[in-house]
Specification:
Strand content: 15-25%
Largest sheet: 4 strands, mixed
Radius of gyration: 18 Å
CATH topology: Rossmann fold
CATH superfamily: Nitrogenase molybdenum iron protein domain
Structural class: alpha/beta
């Protein structure tokens, strides 16, 4: 698997710089109510002895896969063609989440459905809590729809936290810590895998920083208003519009 493949799995975006053109792939709970990043305690697991780890988005699923490997049973239940940020699980899927050994939450208002159901606090980890004071609030965002997810708005807390690669690294570290707490006997293995992943993320961060500097303030257009953390980290002069993937602008 491409180590940076979670970028193409995000909703489509085109970044247009003058004269350069960049193309890349691209989804409220109060802070006191969000589960903290303290991982659950080690426990016995049913079935094959591997913990069932649920992730609410693809970046977190990818981090868990990279770090946990065959030590975990990873579940990413979002159907193809649906924006995972606004996905709503069916009753049977909610029951699956309730029986999970670990639920990896993105925080930052991502996956609002989880605020409406009862999930065990002890199994949830908010992977963005370490940088909660750096989250960005978005006001007056337009309502729109694309794919199978129906209408939605991007107002509230900006949730694509991982587009700042330093924040993505922090979220991967939270995943490592949670998995180590579930399987302390494999903590060293998880630590080694995290270090390999972190090194790749650091290289990507440096590359993106260089791209930002090379653009030197030239105008950039994004197809969706979801690049707040990317803009802040890499210093782009970016304006967001609403270009739907299935519609030619």
């Amino acid at each position: 698997m491409n180590p940076f493949s979670f970028f193409p799995r995000l909703p489509f975006v085109a970044l247009v710089a003058t004269p350069a053109i960049l193309v890349s792939g691209c989804g409220k709970r109060s802070p006191d109510a969000v589960p903290d990043a303290s991982p659950p305690r080690s426990q016995a697991f049913a079935g094959n002895g591997r913990p069932r780890v649920f992730a609410v988005n693809y970046p977190l699923a990818w981090f868990a896969e990279r770090i946990g490997g065959d030590a975990i049973d990873l579940v990413y239940p979002v159907e193809p063609g649906v924006d995972p940020a606004f996905w709503e699980p069916a009753d049977a899927q909610i029951a699956d989440f309730q029986s999970a050994d670990l639920i990896l939450r993105n925080g930052a208002s991502y996956a609002k459905w989880a605020e409406k159901v009862t999930l065990p606090e002890s199994t949830q980890v908010d992977t963005s809590r370490a940088f909660a004071d750096a989250l960005i609030e978005v006001k007056d965002a337009a309502t729109h729809s694309h794919g199978k997810g129906g209408e939605h708005s991007h107002s509230g807390t900006a949730f694509t936290t991982w587009l700042d690669i330093r924040q993505a690294r922090s979220q991967a570290q939270a995943v490592r810590d949670a998995l180590a707490a579930l399987l302390p006997g494999r903590a060293a293995e998880f630590g080694e895998r995290f270090e390999g992943l972190a090194g790749q993320l650091d290289l990507l961060d440096a590359d993106l920083e260089a791209v930002g500097k090379s653009l030197a303030g030239r105008p950039v257009v994004a197809s969706h208003p979801i690049y707040q953390y990317f803009v802040r980290r890499y210093g782009l002069n970016l304006q967001s519009v609403l270009w739907e993937p299935e519609v030619v602008p």
